[in-house]
């Protein structure tokens, strides 16, 4: 075990994934444009980032409000949060959303969608077919 370093493990993991899928796994979101305006925080390209995730904008917005423990309002393409939220913290919260509701934990691909099975909602990966339960 001690012979493997982290990079080596990553390479080994990648080499097991077909080329097309590993390209999609390198998917990234547009950089969030965040600015502080008085005592509010403005996420200027909220809709652009959400469109990239292919998720419901209200779901993303509610998640951010809950995680940040604040309230706010939506304003066209922008989202507004009460209080001065450090951009770093907001970015981390976006990453949490992606890890929880977008990324496949098996192959890392973002090509996923929700499916309903009985009373559970599953996140299904279109790239590798893996499913995992999510709490909406
Ligand atoms: Zn997958």
Short précis:
By secondary structure, this protein is α+β, with helices and mostly antiparallel strands.
Protein architecture, described:
The chain is of the alpha+beta class and 136 residues long. The chain folds into 2 domains: 28-102, 2-Layer Sandwich (Alpha-Beta Plaits); 106-136, no CATH class. It is 38% helix and 24% strand. It has a 4-stranded antiparallel β-sheet with strand order 1-2-4-3, with no helix packed on it. The protein has a 3-stranded antiparallel β-sheet with strand order 5-6-7, with no helix packed on it. A hairpin with a 2-residue loop joins strand 1 and strand 2. The radius of gyration is 17 Å and the shape is elongated. The N and C termini lie far apart (38 Å). The chain binds zinc ion. Zinc ion is lined by residues 104, 106-107, 109, 125, 127-128, 130.
Write the layout of secondary structure elements.
Layout: H1 6-15, H2 19-25, E1 34-37, E2 40-43, H3 46-53, H4 57-68, E3 72-75, E4 78-82, H5 87-101, E5 112-117, E6 120-125, E7 131-134
Antiparallel strand pairs: 1-2, 2-4, 3-4, 5-6, 6-7
The protein binds zinc ion.
Zinc ion (ZN) binds next to loops.
Radius of gyration from the CA trace?
A: 17 Å
Number of helices: 5
Helices and strands: which structural class? alpha+beta
Strand-residue fraction?
Answer: 15-25%
> What is the mean predicted local confidence, pLDDT?
86
**Bound ligands, named by name, code or SMILES:** zinc ion
Please state the overall shape, judged from the principal axes of the Cα atoms: elongated
Q: Tell me about the biggest sheet?
A: 4 strands, antiparallel
Instruction: Please give the oligomerization state of what you see.
Output: single chain
- Beta strand count: 7
- One letter per element, helices H and strands E, the order comes to HHEEHHEEHEEE
Any idea of the CATH class of the largest domain? Alpha Beta
N-to-C CA distance: 38 Å
CATH topology (fold) name of the largest domain = Alpha-Beta Plaits
CATH architecture of the largest domain: 2-Layer Sandwich
Low-confidence stretches: none
- Write out the strand line-up for the largest beta sheet, numbering strands in chain order: 1-2-4-3
Helix percentage range: 25-40%
Domains (count): 2
């Amino acid at each position: 075990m001690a012979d493997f370093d982290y990079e080596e493990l990553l390479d080994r993991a990648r080499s097991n994934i077909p080329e097309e899928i590993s390209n999609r796994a390198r998917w990234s979101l547009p950089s969030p444009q965040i600015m502080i305006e008085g005592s509010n925080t403005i996420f200027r390209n909220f809709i652009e980032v959400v469109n990239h995730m292919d998720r419901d904008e209200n779901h993303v917005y509610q998640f951010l409000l809950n995680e940040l423990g604040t309230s706010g309002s939506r304003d066209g393409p922008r989202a507004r949060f009460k209080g001065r939220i450090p951009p770093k913290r907001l970015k981390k919260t976006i990453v949490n959303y992606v890890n929880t509701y977008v990324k496949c934990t098996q192959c890392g691909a973002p090509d996923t969608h929700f499916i309903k099975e009985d009373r559970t909602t599953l996140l299904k990966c279109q790239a590798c077919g893996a499913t995992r339960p999510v709490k909406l």
